[in-house]
Amino acid sequence: MRSENRWTSASLVLGLMVAAAAAAAQTPSPALLVLEKDDRSLAMIDPQSLKIVGRVEAGDDPHEVVASDDGKFAYISNYGAFGATPGHTLSVVDLDSQKRLPSIDLGALLAPHGLEFAAGKVYFTAEGSKAIGRYDPASQKIDWVLGMGQNRTHMLVVGKDRNRIFTSNVNSDSIGIVERSKNGDVSGWTETYIPVGKGPEGFDVSPDGKELWAANSHDGTLSIIDVASEKVTQTLDTNTKFANRLKFTPDGKMVLISDLGTGDLVVLDAAARKEIKRLNLGHGAAGILIVPDGSRAYVAVSRNNYVAVVDLKTLAVSGRIATGRGPDGMAWAVRK
């Protein structure tokens, strides 16, 4: 009888331990999502402990990731081999179960890259088809496509009112502003392409929607565009070797630029248009994610296989998150 009780007790303890381990591995809210590009995986990270709590296969050649507004799903662009075999899918991950769902086949829309989730839909660039598109998860259909005619339409930002979409067109040396048509254009949209520096890639729109800042990766300059007039108002020298991403802080006071060539994170005062800090994070500073309250930034250091945590009050590195190989695109998932 005692032996049976001991066995029952041991089984109960083991069961509790397994349950506790399973609970500890659940995706937290908020969760930091990091694409490990070279491992073709998506890591789910607890921002409090800075530990990876789950990992899911992300499909072939994953480049960027976004989270749905309710924090339940992640969408990943499968870009493909640059200049060789372009991808044509978006991978989907259920963040609750930490499982990959069936991919979204984009058909002839090739080399998807830049992503944004807005008003329940996934906007994406199709670099290999010189187009942008939109996927509706509710209908499970691509419900809108617009040709751009630009070379390497790489990243995009959807305006808050969704009446404007902004794109960086790397090999056309331009920034695109796509606006809902007011003059009866048959497509419903008008397109304006603004010449900037060489190789614009990372860019962002200021929180008040008045300015667009674009980091030009091939010449080390930064182009500042007045959104209303759709004109470049200022060009700055950022002293970067290969600027990769650019982000405004939520209050619009600072702009962060990652330099893939030097591993630096460059911090600019947005009002003064001047550099106020330069941090060397390692080798291959790439993706940038700033948390909604503006307290910290996560910067993927792709060649050192970690994400640097930067305190935006002190402008100092406050931690590191060890990842798989080639961390790059990131997203912030909040369960609702």
From TrEMBL:
Q: State the protein's name.
A: 40-residue YVTN family beta-propeller repeat protein
Q: Which keywords fit this entry according to its UniProt record?
A: Signal
Record's keyword annotation contains Disulfide bond: no
Q: Which SUPFAM superfamilies match?
A: Nitrous oxide reductase, N-terminal domain (SSF50974)
Signal peptide residue numbers: 1-25
Gene3D superfamilies listed in its UniProt record: YVTN repeat-like/Quinoprotein amine dehydrogenase
